[in-house]
């Protein structure tokens, strides 16, 4: 610890300070981080802490949760004392049980509870060396935990190499830089360990080491053991080569002098990740134990672990040098041995099999495929792609090679890596994959999500399904299922009646070859009005057993839940999955999950949170080049802006989505643009424009087949029709909803159907009954925007039929709901109605000052008695635009008619009419 006084002082304070905390030691390779970690461990032990050590290993950086296992394995006895929910989380991570892979937050909270329990008897110090090699999943959890240790008796200290990027770089943990030694300290360290050096060699070592402690310790023996006949100056003549690589060369010289058996033993230890300074324990056992390696220890390559007595590498650079010095055949032989050592650990066995096998081997390929399936369920889609690709290379038959490459491409596509998916398909040239149904899955997926090409992707997938049908497929088939699900997704985006009808004709005769989940998608995604009966219950049953659901299953069932308006029940599943998939797994599915979370936030009235989710999704889709998802996200952001009264922004997004989607035939998005137009017009009070947009989605009195927005805009069309004098069309549409059985399909459709019937009937008894059914519906509070609109209409009707007092309760409820939602124009409309009912509201001169110059000018002209046409001629505006401006002005002034304009304008302090 020469020259480390300031670091020692900082570490002493770290251990002695009350409460939990985390600290990162960052420095170059060989600078002394491991020695400082040993020091902090000794300090903690002296103060009666329990110390658990772990080390990141490059060979395991792709294994999900491999690093976290090292910390958690010694605490397994405490896991059994946790509640059922947290035990279930750890069962998934350790592979001891099924269930949905936890998100970073869910697992992080469980780990925090476990550490708190373990530290309740004795303070706990977690020491992580070489954190830059920790797998992504473990890094995220450690970062999450490290930021939340305050108030506990747990400390975490992490050693990182400066020159290697790491997930800890963005973890926002406090850091203690570990720099090179000063000239004086370097001389002290060198003289202490290598006294009596020739002055010329001493100077060369100091100049070469540049204050790096490991170099100061290792270079002198390298010079003394030189048998090449070169001078010390020649030995150090590595101009331009980084010091870590030079040190690897130093270690390589020692390795080359060892016997074959010892080198083979070191290679097996290096490839299995034997730690630097500690023997680490795996969830399924221990790492490879090197034996009969005294020769390597004698020449300074290995140390002895004081606790276990096992050989461990003196430094990670030794591990790297051992691997670098080995020939390809030697490495393959070592991996073969390790595959047998870890025969009971599927993923580790697969990793070593993949590296040990050269010729096609179906057993190895099957093991790799099984490991890929395991990784997907634990949140490791990227590792799964690598294993499936290698499994394809080792497949003995062209059919299996094609199938596995297709699976790798499929998962790569779901992971947001469309380029990689394309490359995998192209790599199958000569094996039949480029002409196979499996290739159609990937090429169709890429065509759809990269550029919204629904037409060509639809043709490809139709042809592939028909080809499999004609080839005589008689059993459920993975590729057929993927093709069916992709076709249903394409059809959803196209929203084309002819394509959907052809799909039903194609899939009907396939019977049980189409899985039950796919049948749910077929009924929910297409035409929920005609095929949605019973879908809600089928979705609930499918979600009941999450154990075997892959990320794309959860996503697709979530989409089905959206179409029947039960998404809130399943949002926790999506939120638990989405963070994990964004970083380490199925990114494309995470994009759809974010869409669904945003839609549910809109539905339940969490509009500010929905904006945040939408912006996050927009950043993610843009970064991954998913053009369809970019525009899809913009469409939802536009709809949200319209709801919030941000009309200009809403129409800008509407125009952008419309211009992209309509030429491509992406009817799903063009329907949303019509919904944006309808919602924005309603917010402005421009009911004529709202009606024209609404009938662009569906004609009144019916629900356009395969138009998903048709039932969703039920209340919009009815209200717009009533306010434009189209009472017959409004009533016909409300009755059509009732006759179509919409209340039985979803709770939201029940609410809006009863509201539409109440608003459009002329029978007071029926109106009261339907208003009561709507407002007392158990799900009504879950849809606050629709409920507030129905209450506003109810209050207006009560004011006209029962008098002002009868109206106030409904109007106050509506106004308060609109205020909470952040819908200012609707709030002002409800406030104006309240004022008309005789109740004093908070309308003040502050609201009057909100008028724009143009709104004020139009209001003044209208107050003077001019018609809309006359105002338009004076201001060079259309009568319709004048009408829109007045509909915005009235709520701001707290009035409902032109007759009240003059009095309202006269309340502005210091007012001088223009």
Describe the structure.
This protein is mainly α and 914 residues long. Among the domains are: 5-177, Rossmann fold (3-Layer(aba) Sandwich), CATH 3.40.50.300; 183-237; 256-356, no CATH class; 843-914, Arc Repressor Mutant, subunit A (Orthogonal Bundle), CATH 1.10.10.10. Helix content is 65%, strand content 4%. It is built from 50 helices and 9 strands. Strands 2-3-4-1-5 form a 5-stranded parallel beta sheet, sandwiched between helices. It has a two-stranded antiparallel ribbon with strand order 6-7. Strand 6 and strand 7 (285-286) form a beta hairpin. Helix 12 (243-256) packs across helix 15, helix 23 (454-470) runs antiparallel to helix 24 (478-494) and helix 29 packs across helix 30 (571-584). The radius of gyration is 35 Å and the shape is elongated. The N and C termini lie far apart (83 Å). The relative contact order is 0.05. The model is unreliable at 276-284, 429-434, 843-849 and 909-914 (pLDDT under 50).
């Amino acid at each position: 610890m020469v020259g480390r006084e300031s670091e020692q002082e900082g570490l002493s304070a770290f251990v002695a300070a009350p409460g939990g905390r985390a600290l990162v030691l960052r420095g170059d390779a060989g600078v002394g981080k491991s020695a400082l970690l040993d020091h902090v461990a000794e300090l903690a032990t002296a103060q009666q802490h329990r110390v658990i050590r772990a080390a990141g290993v490059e060979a395991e950086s792709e294994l999900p949760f491999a690093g976290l296992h090292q910390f958690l394995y010694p605490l397994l006895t405490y896991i059994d004392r946790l509640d059922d929910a947290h035990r279930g989380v750890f069962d998934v991570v350790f592979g001891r049980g099924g269930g949905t892979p936890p998100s970073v937050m869910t697992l992080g909270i469980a780990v925090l509870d476990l550490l708190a329990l373990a530290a309740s008897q004795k303070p706990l110090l977690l020491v992580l060396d070489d954190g830059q090699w920790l797998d992504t999943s473990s890094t995220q959890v450690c970062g999450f935990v490290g930021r939340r240790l305050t108030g506990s008796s747990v400390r975490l200290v992490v050693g990182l190499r400066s020159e290697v990027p790491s997930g800890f770089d963005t973890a926002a943990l406090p850091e203690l830089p570990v720099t090179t030694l000063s000239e004086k300290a370097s001389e002290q360290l060198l003289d202490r360990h290598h006294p009596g050096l020739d002055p010329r060699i001493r100077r060369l070592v100091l100049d070469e080491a540049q204050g790096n402690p490991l170099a100061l310790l290792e270079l002198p023996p390298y010079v003394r053991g030189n048998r090449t006949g070169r001078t010390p100056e020649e030995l150090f003549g590595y101009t331009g080569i980084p010091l870590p690589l030079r040190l690897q060369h130093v270690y390589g010289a020692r390795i080359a002098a060892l016997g074959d058996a010892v080198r083979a033993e070191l290679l097996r230890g290096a490839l299995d990740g034997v730690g630097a300074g500690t023997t680490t324990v795996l969830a399924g056992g221990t790492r490879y134990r090197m034996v009969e390696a005294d020769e390597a220890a004698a020449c300074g390559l290995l140390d002895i672990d004081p606790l276990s007595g096992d050989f461990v590498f003196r430094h990670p650079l030794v591990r790297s040098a051992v691997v670098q010095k080995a020939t390809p055949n030697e490495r393959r032989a070592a991996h073969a041995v390790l595959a047998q050592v870890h025969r009971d650990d599927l993923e580790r066995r697969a990793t070593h099999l993949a590296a040990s096998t050269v010729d096609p081997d179906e057993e190895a390929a099957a093991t790799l495929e099984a490991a890929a399936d395991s990784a997907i369920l634990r949140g490791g889609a990227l590792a799964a792609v690598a294993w499936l690709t290698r499994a394809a290379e080792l497949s003995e038959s062209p059919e299996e090679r094609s199938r596995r490459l297709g699976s790798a491409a499929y998962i790569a596509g779901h992971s947001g890596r469309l380029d990689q998916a394309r490359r995998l398909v192209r790599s199958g040239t000569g094996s039949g994959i480029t002409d196979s149904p499996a290739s159609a899955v990937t090429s169709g997926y890429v065509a759809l999500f990269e550029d919204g090409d629904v037409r060509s992707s639809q043709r490809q997938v139709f042809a592939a399904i028909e080809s499999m049908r004609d080839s005589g497929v008689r059993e459920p088939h993975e590729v057929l299922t993927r093709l069916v699900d992709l076709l249903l997704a394409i059809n959803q985006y196209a929203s084309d009646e002819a394509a959907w009808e052809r799909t039903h004709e194609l899939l009907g005769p396939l019977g049980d070859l189409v899985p039950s989940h796919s049948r749910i998608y077929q009924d929910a995604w297409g035409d929920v009005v005609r095929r949605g009966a019973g879908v809600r219950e089928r979705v609930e049953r499918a979600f009941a057993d999450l154990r075997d659901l892959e990320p794309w299953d959860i996503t697709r069932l979530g989409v089905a839940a959206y179409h029947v308006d039960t998404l809130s029940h399943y949002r926790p599943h999506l939120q638990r999955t989405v963070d994990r998939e964004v970083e380490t797994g199925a990114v494309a599915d995470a994009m759809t999950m974010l869409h669904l979370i945003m839609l549910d936030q809109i539905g339940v009235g969490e509009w500010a949170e929905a904006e945040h989710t939408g912006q996050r999704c927009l950043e993610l889709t843009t970064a991954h080049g998913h053009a369809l998802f970019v525009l899809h996200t913009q469409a939802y952001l536009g709809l949200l802006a319209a709801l919030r009264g941000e009309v200009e922004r809403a129409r800008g997004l509407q125009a952008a989505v419309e211009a992209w989607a309509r030429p491509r035939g992406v009817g799903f998005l063009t329907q949303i643009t019509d919904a944006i137009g309808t919602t924005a017009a309603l917010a402005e009070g421009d009911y004529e424009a709202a009606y024209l947009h609404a009938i662009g989605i569906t004609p009144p009195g019916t629900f356009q087949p395969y138009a998903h927005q048709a039932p969703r805009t039920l209340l919009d069309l009815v209200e717009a029709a009533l306010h434009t004098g189209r009472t017959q069309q409004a009533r016909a549409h409300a009755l059509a909803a009732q006759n179509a059985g919409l209340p039985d399909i979803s709770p939201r459709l029940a609410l809006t159907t009863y509201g539409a019937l109440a608003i459009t009937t002329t029978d007071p008894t029926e109106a009261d009954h339907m208003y009561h059914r709507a407002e007392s519906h158990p799900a009504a509070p879950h849809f606050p925007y629709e409920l507030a609109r129905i209450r506003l209409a109810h209050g207006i009707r009560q004011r006209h039929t029962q008098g002002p007092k009868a109206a106030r309760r409904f109007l106050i409820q509506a106004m308060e709901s609109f205020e909470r939602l952040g819908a200012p124009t609707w709030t002002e409309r409800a406030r104006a109605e309240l004022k008309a009912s005789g109740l004093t509201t908070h309308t003040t001169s502050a609201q009057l000052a909100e008028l724009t110059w143009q709104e004020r000018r139009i209001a003044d002209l209208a107050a003077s008695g001019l018609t809309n046409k006359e105002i338009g001629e004076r201001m060079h505006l259309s009568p319709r635009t004048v009408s829109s401006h007045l509909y915005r002005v009235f709520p701001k002034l707290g009035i409902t008619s032109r007759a009240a304009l003059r009095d309202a304008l006269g309340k502005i302090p210091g007012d001088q009419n223009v």
